Amino acid sequence: LLDLAGDDARDLAVVDGRGALSIYGGASLERLGGIDLGLGDGDGEWRLLPWDANADGFSDLLVAAPSGEACVVLRSGEDKWEVRSVRGLGGGGVLALWMQGGPGPSIVALGGDGKCRLHAATAAAENHVSVRLTGIKDNASGIGTRVELRAGSLFAADRVDPAPGSGGRRSAALHFALGGRRTADRVKVRWPNGVWEDSTQPARRVHIEQDPALLGSCPFLYAWNGERFEFVTDILGNAPLGLALAPGVYFPANPSERIALERLEPKDRFLELRLTEELRETIYIDEIALLAIDLPGAAKAFSSNALRPPPYPSEPFVVVGELFPPLSARDDRGVDRTETVRAKDGRYTGSDLAHHAAYQGLAERTHWIELDLGIEPGAKRVALVLHGGYWWSEAGNYAASQAIDVAVPPRLEVPDGRGGWRTAKSPFGFPGGRPKTVVHEIGELIEPSDPRVRIVTNFRLHWDRIAIDTTSTAIQRRTTRIEPSQAMLAFRGYSRAIDAGTPVPYGFDYEQVDLRRPYPRMTGAYTRFGDVLPLVTSADDRLVVMGHGEEIALRFDAASLPPLPEGFNRSFLFHSVGWDKDGDPKTAHGTTVEPLPFGGMSSYPFGEGEAWPAGDSLVGYVREWNGRIVSSAW
After folding, report:
1. What is the pLDDT of residues 590-617, one digit of tens each?
2. 615 CB neighbour count, 10 Å cutoff
3. Domain at 322-469, CATH from 3.10.310, 2.60.40, 2.60.120, 3.30.1490
4. Residues 283/236, Cβ–Cβ less than 8 Å
5. How far apart are the C-alpha atoms of 177 and 187, rounded to whole Å?
6. Strand, coil or helix: what is 287?
7. With the CA atoms of 524, 529, 535 and 541 taken in that order, what torsion angle do they form, in degrees rounded to the nearest 10?
8. Residue 567 CB partners (closer than 8 Å, separation 6+)
9. Higher local confidence (pLDDT), 421 or 68
10. Stated pTM of the model
11. Cβ-contact 458, 366 below 8 angstroms
12. What is the 3-state secondary structure (H, E, C) of 29-70?
């Protein structure tokens, strides 16, 4: 198998027992049969090897007969072929390689006398590009990576394979002859994890180091802040599908979530939000709504969600009163972080934490933040309000489950009364993904005589603001739920990432969009573009199935909200029910849209005896709504 036509399609070359060559074209090549190679016939092994014999950038074919005679078949025009004899090849092994600093594409043959002979291309590869790869999220050698080059009409592709006799290590570089072309237009690589990177206007020597950026996270939420659509955070962090924690054990997905919206303003009477998918994922949205919570004075409402195992909180949100900062905050290296966590200002703890060398989302050391809460003994309620962010792990961290003591999930520790610390709660729920606020009721966990706590982990978890609330009296509240008045699904593209120089995952600029697709798609049936409002008004397993590069444009009628009472403030929470699935090869069903999740499932993949509820209503929903078929990942 080789690409003789330079059309990114495999062609099949076959030599029969009479020494006649046939070529079965993969795309633009027609089937060609009966090319007389002039090598005679004979029993034994015929060797066929791709070789750019004239250094024009297109693959030719070397054919070696059992007798030791050989020829090269060159494509000299549209479906025209030239057969040239190659002498002195011998009957031993044959290897194609690139002679750096020499003639370029060459053949090394082992003769019957035990000597190696070099056969260089008929023309020197004066213009060529050499590509060297360094894997970070995949193997360091980049073995299994596909490399493509375009230079005018020339298309060439190759794959990084282990060098013969290297013990699995790759050869130094891949080389591409350009023929008469002076430069290449683009070099593009697809790493084994399915992600593409490219280099435009590449030099003669190209070194591409794998981007360690996040590939999966969650869908993004943008809100109209009165001037523009502003990035809020990611959602559905508690509902990953098929994320393996250990062999046969998968993350328990919690599809119901609320997200606090601190900067949401009306636009022409409507409250507008954008829900986008911009990373290597497919998402499944069942329900969307907006909660308006009216509270007196400085009281605030925060989501009750946190990244934690079940059981989950029964209340959708938590109300806190007047917040105050901890008396002191100190990290595991003794650095005072009291001012760092005093306000939500983009200054985060753990700025010195390095990424774990092998596992995304983990730090290179176990670390903690130690807090003196500064509360009086006898406080009836102690709520710890934490705003921070976490670098997502990925399905590729499956290997961490097979290592000893690699992951240290967050836990809450309190003084043990003997100068040490003991675990008061483990695991301790935390904000998954980009910055969010979580609230923990810890009044029954702390020691009244020593109100200190530690949050200990080796996750890449960073805190921006930490506050305490001791309000024990009931706070008056009024909650209004409004459903969207418009929900439109469409292709949009990919927002530009914004690195604010903080240790938490970066945000995104909604106004700057790239239309190029950087990831493969899951194959299967997606929801048709257009109005999807009927699918998101209630949780009924009729899902909006959307891929990366797509968005749901949402509008809520602000006029449906009641007037705000005097002395009250209004908190908004975005409510959603849904799931997301990372396209990592290690995710269960990570290459296909199906099977669809459903609200009553015990796990994904489904538990024993479970199946998608294929009743008449849901089968009818799939036929009516999910007719946008993707049959190829690219």
Report:
1. 999 999 999 999 999 998 889 999 888 8
2. 10
3. 2.60.120
4. yes
5. 13
6. strand
7. 0
8. 296, 297
9. 421
10. 0.77
11. yes
12. CCCEEEEECCCCCCCCCCEEEEECCCCCCCCEEEEECCCCCE
